[in-house]
């Protein structure tokens, strides 16, 4: 998607849909637009992150996940009436964000409190199916279809009890990590590890690889 106007149109669709009622056609169009934009700009997020000294490979997973949240916040802040393409705006936004990430600060639009309290399955408009499709199947916009959801959740139930519980509550029940922490009586770090490990095992399961 190299056409700047097409990208700006997707951003406009996303922003308009976010102001529309739940379950409306506009909200669904917004979800799809946000999904496409995250995939389109994934190389930019990764390259911006990797250009920052002090962000080593061990930090890449956390830095990328935080970068996606920053990207979504950037879409909300982008004002097309001020002129300038979204591409240029978001590139600068991500550079500024990762400089603060690198120095231990966070952009005020992506505070630690927001990262902890935002529903894991809805904060960026992506569902578990789309997360798995984006990271595990391919990078060409191939998504798990609705008819495959049953197989997906069967794979979730095949995980360890704790991993399955975290993924189910995060994505199916749209609970925040803070809520899950309180219910399970464990730290946020522990819940995040369970979620990340569960996602990795789920990807293997969907590919037919034992875990």
From TrEMBL:
Pfam families: Sigma70_r2 (PF04542), Sigma70_r4 (PF04545). GO terms for molecular function: DNA binding; sigma factor activity. Gene3D superfamilies: 1.10.1740.10, Winged helix-like DNA-binding domain superfamily/Winged helix DNA-binding domain (1.10.10.10). One of its GO terms (biological process) is DNA-templated transcription initiation. InterPro entries: RNA_pol_sigma-70_dom, RNA_pol_sigma70, RNA_pol_sigma70_r2, RNA_pol_sigma70_r4, RNA_pol_sigma_r2, RNA_pol_sigma_r3/r4-like, WH-like_DNA-bd_sf. Residues 40-92, 158-204 form the RNA polymerase sigma-70 region domain. Keywords: DNA-binding, Sigma factor, Transcription, Transcription regulation. This is RNA polymerase sporulation-specific sigma factor.
């Amino acid at each position: 998607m190299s056409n700047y106007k097409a990208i700006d149109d997707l951003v406009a669709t996303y922003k308009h849909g976010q102001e529309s009622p739940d379950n409306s056609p506009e909200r669904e169009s917004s979800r799809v637009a946000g999904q496409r934009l995250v995939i389109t700009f994934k190389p930019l997020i990764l390259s911006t992150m990797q250009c920052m000294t002090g962000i080593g490979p061990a930090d890449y997973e956390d830095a990328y996940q935080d970068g996606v949240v920053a990207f979504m916040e950037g879409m909300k802040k982008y004002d097309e009436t001020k002129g300038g393409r979204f591409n240029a705006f978001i590139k600068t936004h991500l550079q500024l964000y990762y400089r603060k990430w690198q120095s231990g600060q966070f952009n005020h639009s992506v505070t630690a409190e927001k990262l902890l309290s935002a529903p894991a399955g809805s904060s960026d408009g992506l569902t578990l199916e789309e997360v798995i499709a984006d990271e595990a199947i391919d990078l060409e916009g191939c998504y798990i279809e609705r008819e495959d959801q049953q197989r997906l959740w069967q794979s979730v139930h095949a995980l360890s009890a704790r991993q399955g519980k975290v993924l189910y509550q995060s994505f199916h029940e749209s609970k925040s990590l803070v809520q899950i922490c309180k219910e399970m009586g464990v730290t946020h770090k522990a819940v995040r590890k369970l979620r990340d490990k569960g996602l990795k095992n789920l990807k293997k399961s969907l590919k037919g690889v034992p875990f």
